[in-house]
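Here is one chain, start to finish.
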Amino acid sequence: QLKTVESGGGSVQAGGSLRLTCAASEFNMAGYDIGWFREAPGQAREGISCISNSGQKSHYLDSVRGRSTIPRDNARNTVYLQMTRLKPEDTGRYYCGTAANRACGDGSKWWDYDYWGQGTQVTVSS
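Its structure:
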């Protein structure tokens, strides 16, 4: 079981910023593709961004491209999702997924990832 812990969510006003953290203590995240997904009430889990194990490839959902980045810090065994200019439609619970096989690509889906954290809630008010 590749367990990760998400943190950094909160309630912010539109236009604000948040940095979400996905951290692991029991395995080396550097060997895995990592994806961030959002689940809004009544909606399916949606891919927001992902980064390859090498860190050389990343992808973004069209609605967050240009407003978000997904840096990984191998020294801290952590992957972040930095979000700026937040909008009410960014609201949802954000999950970090770890893929046992290569999964990061344009339009990758939640079922491409095998292990999940508990999520962190992001609420953006207008």
